[in-house]
Amino acid sequence: MPAHAPQWRSATVSDQGPRRYMADAAAHWRVPHGHQAWAVADGIGDEFEAAEATRRAVLVAARRAPEGGAAAGVLRARAHLQYFYDGAPRGQKGDCVMVVAVPLNHAAEGLDVAWVGDCRVYVVQDGEVRQVTEDHTVGQSMRRGGDPYFATPAPGYDHIVERSVLSDTEVASARVTGPVERVLLCSDGVSKAVPNQVVSGLLTAPLYDASFIARSLVSAARAYGSRDNAAATVLLRPRPAPRPGTVPAPPDRPEAVPAATELPPPLFEAGPVPECATSYTRSVVQLAAWAGLRPEWRDPYRSVRVIALNGTGPRATFGTVSVGARSGRVLRAQFIHGPGGEVENHEGPGAVREALSRICSWTSRETGEYQEPR
């Protein structure tokens, strides 16, 4: 691969949900000279032809976009579907909405985006999350004028798209300039269910595991009640090289550990704990394991190590606990609870442990799911 070609780590996670057909699809294509493209599409309707159109569209678009750009990918997919469905009865034509993203020539120095419909792209630049696309829906058009008469009922029309791949409608495009740290492409099964603050929290968390972030977004969509197909593709820049002296961490520093309490065996084992973790940090991890939050240590990212929490079930708690890579001490944590999406942020080891203790008392021993206290 040429030195100037963009290099990214990426992962896609999708889930059919309760729908009859899986009509969300994603594709990634890399050409010989190293340029690459990603596409995510969402079929219109819960039927076979919508799923077929979606699969065809993402493959065609992803193969064309590295050479001709993101908009060329969408247009090639349109030409393919129009040819494929030429002569078919009106009710037997599949259609979909789509977004395509192509990194620009210089590594992580910009992004070319094109879309039709309500699939979205988010980017992270300088630690800030920004939505690049604008939904092509009737609801969004009603909001655009700023008139409360139309804006109030607009959410009821967010599911009606105004542009699609098969129809001869305008293809929107945008170019993101400057260094891009992370990218999210997703269907509306994710974007319309998961609040912006949760999306921002997951994209800016000090994690370097694209599959975990994508899986967490899809899990969050289910936790927030989405019954649509869901698909998320996450792109991450290459991990920065660790600064000399930051890895490995110094020896453990003794800390006062609270008196042990009698707890039943954990629902899930915490797994191996890095040597840098203090005794207090180990007790926090064990508490998370007992609560059924599946704590999993991630590789160091700059000066932080992250413990990923991912409970099970539609009402589960998930989130992250940040630990100093050198000190081994708990720094902060974020917990997201159940379908209501209550978000908790805590600073310092004492506050984090207290919150975990409270979560333990709200967790079902049978399922590991978060139970709202009465």
Shape estimate: globular
Q: Helical proportion?
A: 25-40%
Largest sheet: 5 strands, antiparallel
Count of distinct strands: 15
Report the oligomer. single chain
Structural class: alpha+beta
Order of helices and strands: EEEHHEEEEHHEEHHHEHEEEEEH
The CATH C-level class name of the largest domain: Alpha Beta
Task: Write a brief structural summary.
Helices cover 27% and strands 26% of the residues. It is α+β, with helices and mostly antiparallel strands and 374 residues long. It folds into 2 domains: 9-236, PPM-type phosphatase domain (Phosphatase 2c, domain 1); 240-374, no CATH class.
Can you tell me about this structure?
This protein folds into two domains: 9-236, Phosphatase 2c, domain 1; 240-374, no CATH class. The chain is of the alpha+beta class. The strands form three sheets. A five-stranded antiparallel beta sheet has the order 1-10-9-6-7. It has nine helices and 15 strands. The protein starts with 8 loop residues before the first strand and ends in a 12-residue tail after the last helix. The chain has helices at 48-68, 70-84, 138-144, 148-151, 188-191, 196-204, 210-223, 279-290, 349-362, and strands at 9-15, 24-30, 36-43, 96-103, 110-116, 120-125, 128-131, 172-177, 182-186, 230-236, 296-297, 304-310, 317-324, 330-337, 342-347.
